[in-house]
Amino acid sequence: KLLKLKNIKKAMLEKMFPKNGSTVPEIRFDGFRGGWEQRKLGELCDVYDGTHQTPNYQNNGIMFLSVENINSLKSEKYISEEDFIKDFNIFPEKGDVLMTRIGDIGTANVVESNEPKAYYVSLALLKKKALDPYFLKESISSETVKNDLWKRTLHIAFPKKINKNEIAEVLVPYPEKREEQEQIGMFFKNLENLITLHQRKLEKLQNLKKACLEKMFV
Questions:
Q1: Which residues pair with 207 in a beta bridge?
Q2: 175-189: per-residue pLDDT in tens?
Q3: What's the pLDDT at 87?
Q4: Three-state DSSP class for 108?
């Protein structure tokens, strides 16, 4: 089930976003017509990166996110409120999008709470401006945007990275009507929730099997 859902998501990303050279997707929700627009990401949202300084970690305080936290946007690392106030005039808020930019390139997630969060330079912050955030998250996974990110990535760097200014130049296709953006974003959000649900079920079964192997054999 998990594999089938992942394959469905991959197929729908290919069909629900225009391919290179096209202005309309292969599959569309009823009631929407006309070609999609295409603009630079920096025109659709404000692009920032996180602190370049090595954090002074604390046992509690403000959660500190890095590239490895992108899927959950949860971390067990913290910095003090004093450091947060000093270093983060701009920080992730509800409806913003965080995207990996060092090592892993172009994995995105939507910030769903206003709880203060600090973030490292390995993440780019896309501040809400014009697009539905869930639509933006999935558009970053579409073929057109992925290819543009890949072309702008410094592959000779180790680890590979994409500069903040290059992220702002990436071209993003999008439907002009907010309602269509929201329907696409919600479709993929619900699909992602199903994938997460089945991933957890699989992990529970794998842990159960591991425990039984330990107990049922000498």
A1: none
A2: 999 999 999 999 999
A3: 93
A4: strand
Task: Say which DSSP state 18 is in.
Answer: P
pTM over 0.85: yes
Q: How far, in whole angstroms, is CA 29 from its chain's centroid? A: 23
> How many other CB atoms are found less than 10 A from the CB of residue 137?
22
Tokens of 194: 């199903």
Q: Is the separation of the CB atoms in 45 and 92 below 8 Å?
A: no
Q: Which residues contact 7 (CB under 8 A, 6 or more apart)?
A: none
DSSP string, 54-107: PP--BSSSEEEE-GGGTTT---S-EE-HHHHHHH-SS---TT-EEEE-BSS-S-
Q: What residue type is 97 in one-letter code? A: V
Tell which residue, 35, 17, 37, has the closest CA to residue 26.
17
Radius of gyration of the chain (CA): 19
Would you state the pLDDT for residue 20? 79
Handedness of CA 169, 171, 176, 182 (dihedral sign): negative
